[in-house]
Amino acid sequence: MLSRRMFTGCAICAAIGFVADDASAQTPSGIKRTITARIDGPVEGYETLEVIVDLEPDFVLGWHTHPGTEAGYTLEGAGELLIKGEATKMIKPGFSWITAPETPHTLKNGSQATKLFVTFTVQKGKPLATPVPAPT
């Protein structure tokens, strides 16, 4: 069984570099992902996942991209969403967003736990997220 401590040395990689097939096996402390639905499509080579994301207070999800579209909705909590080329977005309950494929973004959680509902439509077999350097 994998322990959370095993991922301390590469927290960012473990936080966002997992393959969609087994998200829970590589999630470090600070974030919990629960896949609630998965279906092939909308076109061949892609899959759509619905995911509940729980973030602990003050957790920072490093800069990363997705091999497809991310559409999210904030259920609880608050934080800052930074998307390359856009103004900082303050997330709070009821706030939604869409991130285009391969667009760098990061999320800084606030002082309370946050719960998100996120739909990913991504290329099947690729890592759900890939860490990238902060844009300049």
From TrEMBL:
Keywords: Signal. Transmembrane segments: none annotated. Residues 52-115 form the Cupin type-2 domain. The keyword rRNA-binding does not apply. Residues 1-25 form the signal peptide. SUPFAM superfamilies: RmlC-like cupins. PANTHER family: CUPIN DOMAIN PROTEIN (AFU_ORTHOLOGUE AFUA_3G13620). This is Cupin domain-containing protein.
